[in-house]
């Protein structure tokens, strides 16, 4: 729309209102385009995250090293034993990194499960230790 000459305050108000409406329309249009672009790039981001998790590991603790060693032995010794050395090396590297990253992300949940098992085992052994049976108390010879 061509710019019109503003002659009075009423023209100024109308032009200002028109420009605000045009700005709101442009913002909505930009927002729609942005959402469409994000939606189109979602598979690329997913693939990038997968490749990133396969190439880099985030943790270097005892549990992580033990898990990486076990995965290495299982994959190279059993699953990929008849594969070539390049395949064994690459697949083992990627699986170890992915599992390491998954362990780093799920660490709190894993630790809570371990704490629960230990707590449950303590309760079972403590309850057995406190149990007193009168029927066998008289049979003990010292």
Structural key phrases:
single chain; mainly alpha; 0% strand; 142 residues; 5 helices
Helix residue percentage: over 70%
Beta-strand content bin: under 5%
Number of structural domains: 1
Q: How many strand segments? A: 0
- Tell me the span between the first and last alpha carbons: 109 Å
Task: Name the overall outline.
Answer: elongated
Order of helices and strands: HHHHH
Structural class: mainly alpha
Task: Please count the helical segments.
Answer: 5
Average of the residue pLDDT scores: 78
The largest sheet is: none
What is the CA-based Rg, rounded?
Answer: 33 Å
Low-confidence stretches: none
Produce the secondary structure layout.
Layout: H1 9-55, H2 62-79, H3 85-105, H4 107-130, H5 134-137
In short:
This protein is mainly α. It has five helices and no strands. The chain has one domain (about 10-125).
Give a written overview of the molecule.
The chain is mainly α and 142 residues long. The protein has one domain (9-125). It is 80% helix and 0% strand. The protein has five helices and no strands. It has helices at 9-55, 62-79, 85-105, 107-130, 134-137. α1 (9-55) packs across α3 and α2 packs antiparallel against α3 (85-105). The protein is elongated and about 105 Å long. The mean pLDDT is 78.
